[in-house]
Amino acid sequence: MPELTARELLEKRAEVFHQMKDITATAKKEARTVTDEEKQKFERADKDFNDYTAKIDAINAEKLADEKRAQAMVDADNLMSSQPKRETKKVVGGEAEFRSLPYKERQEAYGDAYERYIRNHSKNRSHKSAFDYLSQEDRNVIQWETRTQTAGTDSEGGYLIPDQWSNDIIRVMLDFGGMMANSKLIVTGKGGQWHEPKYDDTSNTGARIAEDTGDTVTDITFSEIVLDDYTYTSKLITATWEALNDNEYNLRGLITDVAGERIGRITNTEFTTGSGSSQPNGVVTASALGHTAAAVGAISRTDLLTLIHSVNSAYRSSPAFKLMFNDSTLLAIKLLSIGSADDRPLWVPSMRDGAPSTIEGVPYFVNPDTASIGTGLKSVVCGDFNKFLIRQVKGIQMAESSHRYIESRKTVFFAFARFDSELQTDTAMKHMIHP
Description:
This protein is of the alpha+beta class. Among the domains are: 87-160, no CATH class; 161-201 and 220-326 and 367-435. Helix content is 40%, strand content 19%. The chain contains 13 helices and 14 strands. Helix 2 (36-82) packs antiparallel against helix 6 (163-174). Mean pLDDT is 82; it is low at 83-92 and 150-157.
């Protein structure tokens, strides 16, 4: 059965949404709260709604990853064309021609050759290495591309993993928790501390002055935030040579999904609730108190409106102004109007591709690392997420080696990356806490 398109998924999700509305409408019409049976139906429908949403988001994330990949290739080509031409010694097989190819073509050829190299680990290695089983063309491609990027590697210690794999890891990370996808990402070319200006000028205004009157000075008060380069690892991921040699085995899927999920989980947690001491400062930690909810175990429409309006209108008008909470809080918000005489739409799901779902007209995203509703917990954050900075050093880097577990006939992979996060403008983000 063919997979549904984004448009078809939107249509099916709209059907489920109307089922949910019918359940609440019946309760309102009869001026009562929902029955346990109705609530169970609502929760089942909500699960279907979330499943369709996840599939739509996956399609959109893949689209975004493709666009970023394409742009990276264009940038690489532009960078190469801007560099002064260097004499390249021509060798048998055409290294000069290979190195003059566009970045995309080189990477595709290298990626294909690299996968064949990895799959050759399970062959008889009594007198040959996995590299020796490659065709001369594949050996040339691997050696040429490796020399293009680095000073050389041992053929059994591991060559560079293709850039496409790193891009796939970033795509998987974007799916985890939403912090990387919704915050402002700064990619720096090297590690060490990175300094960013910090200021808030929303309390200052211009002035009307009379003719021939001297003006007054109202300077911007600058400080700075320092972004570090904390290292994160996927931990070691091993694969047997037999599995790697299986042509039906999704090698790239194995590595990128596991590595991306592992780094995605830890970084999203720390971008959300990190303490800022020897680790990133999370958005919940860095945000200011905007509102204290009226109840310990509940949330109201008034709570949400008060929180939203606790943020200066200059930030509320930003395209990056959003609400953030976890899935259980979203369900509580969806159920808010049940049994109420207030028929104004609170939660409005997206009904067309590209349009976000909203709460009180404000887009939102679900972050599982946000706390649930409860005593002393910060369950909702809102603000201009463009003012929350995530710093990434270079790209996601990967390594592989067939030496460490040679007696078990395994190749080991791991990914590592360097990140930090901090709020650039204190008043741009506010949270709600429960008493």
